[in-house]
Fold these 4 entries.
Entry 1:
Amino acid sequence: MFKTDAKMTADSNADLGTRREKMSDQDRANILMVDDQASKLISYEAILGPLGENLIKARSAREALHHLLQNDIAVVLMDVSMPDIDGFELAEMMRQHPRFQKTAIIFISAVHLTDVDRIKGYRSGAVDYISVPVIPELLRAKVSVFAELHRKSRQLERLNSELERRVEERTEQIRENEELLRERADLLELATEAIIVREMSGAILFWNAGAEALYGWQREEVLGKLVHQILKTRFPMDYSSVRAILARDGKWEGNLTQTTRDGQEVVVACRKALKAGGNAVLEINRDITAQLKAEDALRKTERLAAMGRVAGIIAHEINNPLEAITNTFYLLRDHPSLDEEARYYAKLGEEELIRVAHITRQTLGFYRESRHPVPVSIPGLLDEILELQTRRMEFSNITLQKHYRSRGTIQGFPVELKQVFLNLIGNAAQAMPAGGTLRLHVFESSARHSRRPAVCISICDTGIGISPENAKRLFEPFFTTKSTKGTGLGLWISKGIIQKYGGAIRFRTLSLGGHNATCFRVFLPDAEFQKIDEPSGVDLATSSAEEIVEGSHGR
């Protein structure tokens, strides 16, 4: 029997020695041994040495905490009875630290422990108990299991980190590829649109390369088949109504939901035209799935931006009274009429006010784009915005007319100015879904009240116009005429930005003989006379909305 046990021990030691040789320094687990008796630490070191792990000794709980903070510990082997801080208290302190909440703890006790003591230890974070005298094979086996679990956890963490790194690299590569494809798509815009010619019955006569790329079917696979059966087309209205409009007007436009060969749903902007003779239909479909997602994300971002602006306004308004209160507390803290207790509470109040002031400064820091304004060319800014709107205006058959009669350079912040004019131009384009004319005019003028030199930017459209009911509320926060597609904050925020520059925004609209015209004018002080104020609030009152158009541009 003893020979068998000795052989098993020898075999176990041999396996441990082989594993220790294979382990690298990085794979070795740190085992912390805590005992106030040096002799016990030496014995534990002798028992656990064959494991090949890093053994760390501590003679007290304080020394153990020091090692825990300095090293990544896999297992803590600790004595229950120690002076100053016993094992239970040390385990409780470890569990209160987020880093050590999952560290394995094995208690070693030289005295008999009651069930109450064991429960106390488990509540403190212990995972096992070993009684003295210690059986070397048992201690080695238990410590080995926890060290191996810790090693596997760390290996998984490294693998996860490597996987995340590869995913980031792949994502970056995909992004670069998308940018390259987008550049090519701009050059070959027509070729990337799906162009389909079909009979009135729906049988496909022509299927271009753009349709192959969008839907996944090759030309020879679809010729002669019914287009809407293959694509599982869903119309925004009854199909009979679409056919009636097409037969009456010779064309139809709208968004369709279709299914590609691999089962993915795409939303396409569809334009149908009835060919001469009425025996075939030309369809041009452009994938706008990503555009719709981007617009949804932009609306959400606009809501967040508005919340941030409101927070910045509030922070600015409370900053001055907060500074006065802070100074009052500073003077009060050392006032001779106060006793020690009152001074203590005054100091606490001052510290909390300092913290509130810090939060206020942080909020203002998020609100402001930068510390100093820079020269901004209004014509250049408008051209950048028009580049972003080019595709929408071409699709909506909007004619653009530009008249830049001024250098239009002011001191300002490009991002917030771009936000103003992107909102105004975007609103004008949306007001002309069936086409129209967009006129931009930049010229030198003077502010109505101060007569100071100013740059005037006129944005006019021949869209659907603005009703008198809506005109009265146009600059109110959260008022929108776009149903769920608008936040109701665009014009309100734009007005606040323009007021910060000491400028003004006005609009006029006219409906005459079935035709509408709407004109927004923005007045910004010339750079030589301009003084940009810090954000001190946004006027929540409505603007003076006048309902008679001013006439042609520039007057």
Note: The CA atoms of residues 410 and 527 lie 4 Å apart.
Entry 2:
Amino acid sequence: MGAGKPWTAPLFKTLLKDSKGSAFGGGPGGRAPWPYFLRPNPKTVGITARGCVQRVVRPYAAQKNRRSLPPTMLYFTRAKTLAIAAVCALGVLLSLPNLTPRPSFLPSFIPWNQVHLGLDLRGGSYLLLQIDFSAVEKQDLNSLVDQVRQAMRGASLGYIGLHADPAENQVTLSLLNAANGPAAQSALQKLITVSQGSYTGPSLALNIAGTAVTLAFPPQALIARESQAIEQSITIIQRRIDGSGVLNPSIARQGQDQIVVQLPGVSDPERIKALIGTTAHMTFQLVDTTAQPGAMPPLGDDVLPMQDDTSQTVTVFSNVAVDGADLENAQASTDPQSGQWVVNFSLNSVGAREFADTTTANVGKPFAIILDGKVISAPVIREPITGGSGQISGNYTAQSATDLALLLRAGALPAPLSIVEEQSVGPELGADAIRAGALSLGVGFVLVLVFMATFYGLFGWFANIALVMNLFIMLAILSVMGATLTLPGMAGILLTLGMAVDANVLINERVREEVKAGRKPLAALEAGYKRAYGTIIDSNVTTLLAHVTLFIFGSPPVRGFAVTICVGILTTLFTATVLVRLITSRWYVSRRPAALPV
């Protein structure tokens, strides 16, 4: 076949038949359309062999080679591309509540979550509370004394000197007959249980030596009880504050016996302090009508002051008839007869049964309602109350009745709380902090954009686009989490901005090295991303683990910093290694540059 010999139509038919279903695509009826390099010249019908090779064979082979290339770092399927675009769109959508008010046309069932501002940004009150563990130990010892008394009485064993020893955290007594030691051992052994949780062991240590009997709390059991008291107090404080209408409070344990309470937006914390500082332990006890006023109370009686007038006292039996722990609900309302504010309460099945038994057996006797050691009222039982509900009346206002009902619903604190430290942050100071934080965030953001655009050109702008999307996605995740943003949190966001471009710096520098080594553009991009990927993952994972540790063991301000850093690392791994790679891939496919702009 000569170099200048023209090829005829059969050759075109063969080439077009081979191109059917290839990158050129098939036409209607299975006929392949003319590719751009096979369009017939109206002035000639032939084509030389060399021209055919240059215009047909080489481009056709290039098309087949491009189709047979294996997937690389710059290869994205359509599904993967759509998934990345969906994540970015969702990030922008979920971050909108922080940038614009809720539209009036938006249905109420669609959530509109925002990042909450912390105490240092919004202003509010800061309280440091300390729990009195000695009251917890005293309460446990008194309860143990009652249990020992009932156990010994049930076993018909004689004893003397039953008392609690707070210094040693134990209860002691003496048997009347040393021969009753095994029987006492059997009776008191039933009081010992196996604790579960942080401490797994016997709840009591029983020791009988001759006539001396000792029941002591093990040191590890006391530590577990103190930790339980702290957690219980935090739960009850949370219920009380939530019921008062304060939004986004922060309540956390600090040290061994302290609780930090932050109340954003609360400028006057007096009502909250009253709600938190009240133990709210309610009991129902019978009044001892035989006791003489002003005289020494008989054994087994307590003299308690009235709540409205502390100069007046009431003598009640020490034994608690019904405990407020059995309270199921409490609501403030007005009495339809007197028009005064009252608190209606209801008991659970256990409390209702005890209340019914007590009121049935003591008709005509006064029954005292006691809250935190003060008698609210002592009404006379007119008839048995079997419904498990009652009413607390007094000189209540709407606010005081509502607060009392809230305290009773939230439950009693296991021990009194005292305010160790109190601080107030005005809204003006919070606004100044927001302005200063926003200014530093904006300046840092702009400097990072300028740096990347200056040193890396077009690829720097790709990184800048990903950085903007990083902020949107980070804000969206914090909004969904309902996170509280503080000044340390804003510092964490600013630090994330600088860390976010580290990955792109590594990639771009690696691409530069590959270009200087003489690699082609596609090979340089492939090598740059592949060789920098492992370093990026390792550095970010180690940083993530360090900040997770900060979140677990740090104080609340440190936790706010750790949360934003951890979220920022996760979003950075997505935007810097996935989103930028997608943008670079689409740019290369559309431009096919002969040289890379790095």
Note: Residues 549 and 562 are 9 Å apart (CA to CA).
Entry 3:
Amino acid sequence: MQTMRRGVLCSRKRLVSSSRPSSAATAAAAATTETAAAPTSSPSGSTPPRANVVALLRSRGLLNDVAGEGAEDALSKTSTGVYCGFDPTAPSLHVGNLLGIVALSWFAAAGHVPIALLGGATGRVGDPSGRSTERPLLSDEEIEANVAGIRKILEELLGRAASGEFTAAALAEEAGASSSSPASSSSSSPPPAPRILNNLDWFGPITFLEFLRDVGKHARVGAMLSRDSVRSRMSSSGAGDPNDESGKNSEGISFTEFAYQLLQGYDFVHLSRNEGVTVQIGGSDQMGNVVAGLDLIRRMKGDGGGEGEEGGGGSGGGSSAPSSPSSRCYGITFPLLTKSDGTKMGKSAGGAVWLAAEKLSPFKFYQYLLSSTPDADVVKFLKMLTFLPLSKIDEVERAMRGEGEPGRAPYRPNDAQRLLAGEVTRFVHGDRGLEQALKATAALHGGGGGGSGGGDAAAPSPPSPAAALDANTLEAVAGDAPTAARPRSAVLGANVVDLLVDVGLQPSKGAARRLVAGGGVRLNNVKVESAERVLEEGDLVGGRLVLLASGKKNKLLLKVE
């Protein structure tokens, strides 16, 4: 019995109490996880929204399914709380997760209260959705480190979106397109402040027996078995290895992952009771979990309303009034980020395309979007991943078809990809990250900058001496250019011709001299005018790096040791 008194999903050191906490304790725990000021009143029904967010999502290809009758009408008339969950399966989110952040940002722009939910508890179980095998269980230390990393990303990205800088132009266009929409009379105030919560704060104090008694009794196994994520795993189950007593080598689904939908469903129950949330959003593969949450709300509350927990739950930021018992809850899913050939966007030869700069530099992030987006998908991704007004995206699409406006520069190959890469990099990594990406792109590829802020994509141009290199820029391209290392004594005072041969950029000194004479050799993006040019201390960028170019495409980063 001593073991049974521990929290459902946490060790003793995380256990807040061996019995259900009071409403005040629950609210206090939730307050410690917020990264922005909570709304001063209940998000549900407090003010009319600025725009019809469902129509907005639909117009940008961000709407897959809607669960709940009358959702579009309700959300176009009443502001509410909306949440999207992010399980800490890795130290960083990846580009596929960006859709959830973008969707939350559009809800905020339309006047709803966005909540990003960290799965500090559910991440200890593992979501079976979209998986053919069991997820590996992570240690508590790994999960908490992942939570911290993902929290940092969400704070930065949702904070940028909350400024209104990215969404203002598109929202103004939406308002002009529908004068009868609430958006037409929207105020100039910034979107509601985002909030970041962690579901370990309410799951941690609940004991296993309490969860079975208070939540599990409302779940119906038949409905749980009907979920696609469960059925696909059940259909793959076989007899397994009779000698494998641990069950590790058998197929199918474990009770742990089978119960995941119940945990995620209770998230929705808790947030609707205590935070004024009536909408859950997620990828299309999450529809089963979303429906499970809606069903659990209906069973635990009777009619889908927001009856408060013991003592009455707060509404997420000061209001002590619980949600209206007559309020309804809805689920909205967006498509997964896939290319026209059916492959997922977000995988590269080196693995996932991470959002954290520590795992993938802004330069490599930018380059992935630039080089991996085919013409057939770039317009779709501009709508889904950026906040550009649709009129601007339509203009780009017409230019791609050769139907650009008279007097404007003709479309050049990859202009749309440069615009996509520039806009998404600026949102994910900020202005400084985009600047670093463009400088590194110019250093390695001779120009090819990307548009930002809705402007036209910059024209590819040769690098110039004015585009001074720095050590950070060169370090950013290190993984994308051939690299060689030489001792300082072998570099300083050495002839450039000799170096080109030594590092393998030219087959012979004669070939290297001819290339110099033809203007085809550059040192740190500056043309080498003479075959007698030698390297000096001032040529070492950051005191340790040199970028050599032999022709337009052959570049090498020389590290001086």
Note: The radius of gyration is 27 Å.
Entry 4:
Amino acid sequence: MPPIRILLLALLTASAAPAEGRRLTVVGINDTHGALMAAPAPRWLMSKAGPEVGGADWLGGYLSAIRQEAKEKGGAVLVLDGGDDFQGSLISNQFQGRSVTEVYNALGVGAQALGNHEFDFGVEVLKERVAQAKYPLLAANVFFKGTRRRPGWLRPSVLLDVEGIRVGIVGLATVSTPITTNPVNVADLEFVEGGPAAAEEADALRAKGATVVLICAHAGPRPPEQEIQRVAEAVQGKVDAIVSGHHHVAIGPPPLFVGKIPIVQSGAKLQAFSVIDLALDGEGRVLGAEVNEGALPKPGGPQAILHSWNGEPARWRGRPVQPDPRVTAILRKYDDQVRALREKPVGETLVDLWKDREGDLLGSLAVDALRSGAAGGLPARFALQNAGGLRVEEIPKGPITYGQIFDLYPFDNEQFVLSLPAEAVRNALEAVLRAGKGPMRVSGLRYVIDWDRFGAGGNPRKAPDGAIVVKMTDAESGQVLCETKACAAGGCESACAKGPYAVAVTDFLANGGDGLRLPAAAPRKTSGALARDMIVAFVREHRPLGAEAPGHREERRWMQVGSAQRGHAER
């Protein structure tokens, strides 16, 4: 065959199958919640990882190794964040998230999704963080109510040049934001379904020349909503990968793909990150994706931010990892300002305090404190505390510090005491279950959730009042306060005490957080006491917590029969 014909054939073959070009490495983090410092390793990981994991400076060390690898191979690196960054620790809350944003600037974060807890300090503070950040805060599905006009401080998407690769990034907020931050903070905003908004933005970014389009979304994979999977289904053929957040889950192994789109999420509190390696053709378009290749402790799952492994120094794909000294200096600057308060002793426990285990001692402790009237609060007959408001799983046996209580309850929620009939209390317990949340922690009450008796588990959102919580009693007297006798299509027949009863809640719940429904006309009082301060005072008053610790050696304060066809999303 003549040489010219051979050359032409080679050119035609190359055009039919684009040659592989560079690699874009997407690093995903999410739900930092102010956890900038290293933390004790989970018990299941401690034998191999050593005593501590996480820390923003250690993440910076991993990013240095990842960027060095990319540089050597002619690739590029982009760091995306799935939202909920500021709320949750003294080192963040005391500075209203300024410390987190300064650290993210130093880490070289490329873009951040708008999380529901970004609103916790109010919109004016959020605007300050947006102005401080060297990266954009994104959400394409947030509008002023009744309009298609977006807030001026919020961008729907951004087009970046990442080492010569034109990358479009679309941001999304969870549609549940109005009930997962204090509702008054977002009263003028509407959070619409993310998929159609993301698809529209993706098309616009492609039209502007993006060869890669990514989503960073504060939306999670849990059933039944599977919000991020619905987004992925809506953007098939338009988007190449998704970094998600909100549910605090570690996705994988195996990796999660919806169609050809990989979705990652890395747990919470900056203890791990995810890696999506995108292979690109010569034009910068995506040919394929590898997710969390070679990650520890489980390949295919998020990479733990390890300080060591099996007694050896931490490494990333053969490269040594050390804390980033620039980030360490930032952490030291802020930590010096809060260390004394964080380490201040407030009490002691002679038993491990767990959430959701062994009597749910943490839940009982928090809700009993809310009812007690400690720290200048108002005493009440009963109290209700939402499960998602309690942010740690354990306070181990030993001294209790202010920092541990702050980590348990970082929100500046005030105690309110409402005057309610028993039926309204029962309906409140059911409302959070209909919204897909975990069972309410209670003080002074016991209640029974029965998903099977009246068929409520098949469709909890449509279940009539009384079909889910079928019995509620006064824990001290044993009096039945509310009991469901029968249910039909038109509603349930219940026998409930008239009351009224003084019921302590937080302002988050009183304002409709977690989907709670309380009568608008119900009398309410407040002393201005913060729920967290009440817990601190209660722990001091009952030191040391021992066999008499709230909830210790008692049955769980609620009983659950059967199950609902949906998961709990407490975050």
Note: The CA atoms of residues 223 and 567 lie 5 Å apart.
